[in-house]
Design brief:
Thiamine-monophosphate kinase (chains A, B), 8 helices, PurM-like_C_sf (chains A, B), transferase (chains A, B), 7-stranded mixed sheet, alpha+beta, 15 strands, homodimer, ThiL-like (chains A, B)
Chain lengths: 331, 331
Amino acid sequence: MPSRPEADDPRLGDVSEGRVLQAILTRTPPSAHTLLGPGDDAAVIAAPSGSVVATTDTLVHGPDFRLAWSSGYDLGWKAAAVNLADVAAMGARPTALLVALAVPRDLRLSFVERLADGFRDACTALAPGCAVVGGDLTVSDVLTVAVTALGDLEGRAPVTRSGARPGDAVAVAGELGLAAQGLAVLFGRFRDGDVPVPVDPARLGPGERAALSAQLRPTPPIALGAVAATAGATAMMDISDGLALDARRMADASGVTLALDGSALGPDVDRALAGGEDHALLATFPEGALPPGFRAIGVVRARGTEELLCDGRPVDTSGWDPYRDWDSVSG
Amino acid sequence: MPSRPEADDPRLGDVSEGRVLQAILTRTPPSAHTLLGPGDDAAVIAAPSGSVVATTDTLVHGPDFRLAWSSGYDLGWKAAAVNLADVAAMGARPTALLVALAVPRDLRLSFVERLADGFRDACTALAPGCAVVGGDLTVSDVLTVAVTALGDLEGRAPVTRSGARPGDAVAVAGELGLAAQGLAVLFGRFRDGDVPVPVDPARLGPGERAALSAQLRPTPPIALGAVAATAGATAMMDISDGLALDARRMADASGVTLALDGSALGPDVDRALAGGEDHALLATFPEGALPPGFRAIGVVRARGTEELLCDGRPVDTSGWDPYRDWDSVSG
C-alpha cells in the first residue's frame, strides 16, 4: 500500500479519541447480533439463549508480537482470532468483540485503520455475524490490544475442560505446530542480532509462507466449536500453549489420562506437541460421535500415573513461551 | 499493611500466570449471575432478559493513574467503578467483570492481591451480585488494567444518549467536580517538581480527604441507573469527561439544547461543569418522573444555536483531560 501524505495520516497523539474510534468502527460492519452499537456508554448484544459466553485476551508489544514482524492488519486479525477461539472452545458461536487499544502517540492513524480491517476480515472469515461492537482508546508507550469476545451457546450446554471420560476419543481440529514453525522462521531468518527486522517475502519458500501466515494470521476452526458441541463433545479447549501442555490441563481438569497416538500428529511429532499459538480445538467425543472436521489423535483412559502419554510414553508438558527471554528486545 | 517477607511476596515475573490469576480469583466471590466461572477458556454469565450490555474501559499508568498516588486497591476499585458506571448509564444492572492485566515483571504479587480486593469491594459496595468472572495476565513495561463490564437490562429497553425531548427535566445523581478537586490536591500538594510523591494523609483536611477519595476510589451511584430506567428516563450517560462536555454530547445525540441552572450546580459552578471522573449519572426525565436520588439541574429545550446553556449563557465544552501534558512525567 503506498504511503499516504502525512497530513492525511496523522499521528494518534494529534487526533481525538473520537476520530480514532470512528475510523475503527466505520471500517467494521455491524454485527448481526448487535441490538445497540457503538456511540453510547455501552453496546447491547443479543443473547437469545439467556446466557453469554465471555473471554478476554491481550496482545502486548514485546512479549506477544513485534511491529517489525506484524502489520496492523496482522495484529487485528490475530487479536480477533485468539479470542474467537476461546469462545468456540466452549461450544459457542461468537457474537461480538470489544477492543481496548492503548497506543503510542507517534503511531499513525493508518495503522489503526489496518488494525480495524484485520478485525473485520478475521470475523468475516472465521466467525461470520460477529463484529466489533465497542471499544476504548488510551495512550501508552507500549502498544497493547485487549480484546473481549462474547458468544452465544444457542441453547447448548457449555463444553468445559472437565468432561472427558475414559473410552472417549481424543480429537483435534486445526493445525498443530504450524504457528510455531512460523515463529521459528521469524526468529531464525529475520533478525539483525537480537533485533527483529521486517520480513522479506522474496526470501521465503511456499512452506515458510504458510507457516508465517499461521503465526501472524492464524485461522482456527471457529465454526467447528459449535459443531463439536452439537455432536456431543464431552470436553473441549483451544490449544494456545501447545498440545502437550493444554492436553495435560484437560487431563487434570477431567481426572483422566489422555493417551495420544504419535502417528496421528504429523511428520514432526515434537513440534506438534510443543508448538503453541495455532488455537486448534482439542476435544473429546464419545465413541462414534466424531464430527467432520475433527481427526482422532488418541483415546481417554482412566487416570494412571501420568496425565499425558504419547505412544505409551510420558510427554514433556513444560509448554510454550517462545518470547520468555525476548522481553528486552526492541523492534 | 505491614510488608510481607520478600519470599512470600514474589515479583510477578517470577511466578506463573496461573498463580497470579488464582490469587485474583480466590479473592473475588462468585457472581450471582455466573453460570460457569473461571478455569475454562471462557466464562458463562446469565443474560435472563435475552441481551447483554457490554462496555470496556482501560486505565494506563501515566495518562490515567500514578502508582505514587494510587495503591493497588485504589486502582482495582476505580477500574471497576468506571466500567460499572457505563453499564449503569444504559439502565442496566452490572453482572460481571473481565479483567485483562498487563503488569511489569518487577511488580509484587501483593499489589495484584490488593488490586483484586479493590475489584471485590467496589462490586460489593456499588453493584452487589457483580464479580470478576474471568481475566488475562500478560507482561508489559506499562501497568495497564483493561476491564470489560457486562450487565443485564432485566427486560427494560436500554437508555441511550439520544432520547432527550424538549420539556424533559435534566437531572444528575452523584458528585459533580469532587474527583477533579481531588486531582487538584494531588497536582498541587503531592509533587516534587514534576514527579508525583506519595500522599501524606496528615497534611490533608477532611474536605481534601473526601475529594481525594472521590478521585482515587469514586463511588458512582450504580444502582440508580436501573432506577432511572424504570422511572422512564428518556436519555442517560455517565459523566466521565465533565458535565459540560458530556451534556453537550447528549444534546448533540438528541438534537436538543440542554439549559442548565447554575444555582443547582453547587458553590463552584465552573468546577461542576468542567471537572471529570466523578462518573455521576446525567439523565433526562419526562415532567414529574424524577426518581429519588436524582436532582434537577435544568431543562431540555428545542435545539437553538447552542447545544448547552448555563443560566442562559453558552458554556465552554472543551472538557477534561487533566493529564494531557503529564504523559512524560514518571511516578
